Amino acid sequence: MPATAAHGPADSYTPGHGSRDYRVSRYELDLDYRVSSNRLAGHATITAQASTTLATVVLNLAGLRVQKVQLDGQRVRRFVHRGTQLIITPERPLPAGTWFSLDIRYGGTPAPQLGNWGEVGWEELTDGVLVAGQPTGAASWFPCNDHPGQKASFGYTITTDANYRVICNGVLVSHSAKASRETWVFDQPEPMASYLATVQIGRYDLRTLMFPADTTDHRAGRPVLQYLGAPPALMAKAQTALARQGEMMESFETLFGPYPFATYTVVVAGDELEIPLEAQSLSVLGPNHLTQDWESQRLIAHELAHQWFGNSLTATTWADIWLHEGFACYAEWLWSEASGNSTAADRAGAAWRGLSVSPQDLMVGDPGPESMFDDRVYKRGALAVHALRRAAGDGPFFSFLRAWTEEYRFGSVTTSDLCGTADRICGAVPGFDARTILTPWLYRLPLPAL
Ligand SMILES: [Zn+2]
């Protein structure tokens, strides 16, 4: 992080969230949770490095009470918890470059946080818990440097009531039972933005999704392990709805490059959900998303595509949210084509016609915080991707997609980064210039001709 970037707001879309003054490399979250009373007792161990001289360390935590803070095992001068910010003052300022460790004990009754985007974060289900962190919900359950450009690895140790299953990001390391409590340990080694951290708790069964032999990733010589967690009563319906996910995975690995994580888990919550949600290495659907019609299948494809676009490659700032949603929406169209449904060009035409009769007053490349999840960011963002494909031709375009996901794997990205990779891979195509192609779609208001 350049020195000049320090001290400013981390992101104008989410004021008060995130800090550029230090970087977290690892969160260890040890949580004890009681489902019936929604009581959480947490112990977060955060390993971080100062990017500038730190007189205070500012984290985000909302709706929970902090009991104790230690820095490198020592007491701190003071800590103040105000609104969504936890401001920690060490005994002495931490020089730039210093590695430090924070131990934070906290607890209470976690609740979703209300923002521009409705309620986000920790949410009680009829029987269990769902965490939907995008964009500022992470602070509802752990102290964090809450910003998409701040990626860290995670470890979770979660103890809860027996007969519930806990599903987090990453890989299940161990599971043990003691009296009426069970403990679940997960490791998420690849860097992850805080909003993608999640815990799902429910009376779930877990199955390995079995697909025909064609799900093997032949380049890497391994199949991507895919799991399904669902209430027993919904398991059969969920398996039917996900019957083509193996083909989807194979298709996306061919088009986008290797699946970025060790496993992929789909959780079906017991309660209906307005929209599915993506988290790193897992997605969450509602029982209302379990049909075989296009509306459900496109959402299943969309959430899977976010593993490449959004989770492995994460926008450095929220203004570039089209790098997540435009690509995930375009992936729906690619799956439509690959699965023998409408071609991507037909889907693009239909989206264009829809946009042509919608207000053209949104700048997709910087939509503003209120509109970052506006459907036009998704559709017009996907049309911007389609415009690159049309200009480059299929061969160079798909080479570019694979180069993009490889070059910035597990990293933070901007639209300029995208243009750089596109120009490098497609530059030999006469007249190709990514910035010139994208500008009318992203940074002008009138809808360009398709
Ligand atoms: Zn999405």
What does this structure look like?
It is globular, with a radius of gyration of 22 Å. By secondary structure, the protein is of the alpha+beta class. It is built from 9 helices and 25 strands. Mean pLDDT is 95; it is low at 1-6 and 214-219. Helix 4 crosses helix 5 (344-356). An 8-stranded mixed β-sheet has the order 5-4-8-2-1-12-15-14, with no helix packed on it. Strands 9-10-11-16-13 form a 5-stranded antiparallel β-sheet, with no helix packed on it. It has helices at residues 235-241, 245-256, 294-305, 322-338, 344-356, 375-392, 394-407, 415-426, 434-442, and strands at residues 22-34, 39-50, 57-60, 65-71, 74-75, 78-82, 85-89, 99-108, 113-115, 118-125, 128-132, 151-161, 165-168, 171-178, 181-193, 199-202, 205-208, 216-217, 222-223, 225-230, 263-268, 277-279, 282-285, 314-315, 412-413.
